[in-house]
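Consider the tokenized backbone below.
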């Protein structure tokens, strides 16, 4: 099926858009799996947002627990 036909049938309407992203390099010896804890504040600041402005965060499951365990260290 073509993209135009799918749009005509309203079966490919996007539910979300990725508006911005960032990369964060960290030392794996010291900060393994906490890249999200550094990247979330960076992306929020760059887009003039607060954490309360976000409804849902999507993170890879391998990283999310490690990131949230560090939210008291790295303030949002």
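A designed sequence for it:
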């Amino acid at each position: 099926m073509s993209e135009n036909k799918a749009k005509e049938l309203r079966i490919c309407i996007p539910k979300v858009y990725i508006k911005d992203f960032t990369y964060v390099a960290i030392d794996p010896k010291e900060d393994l799996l906490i890249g999200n804890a550094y990247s979330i504040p960076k992306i929020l600041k760059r887009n003039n947002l607060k954490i309360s402005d976000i409804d849902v965060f999507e993170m890879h499951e391998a990283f999310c627990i490690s990131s949230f365990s560090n939210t008291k260290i790295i303030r949002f």
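The two ends are 44 Å apart (CA to CA).
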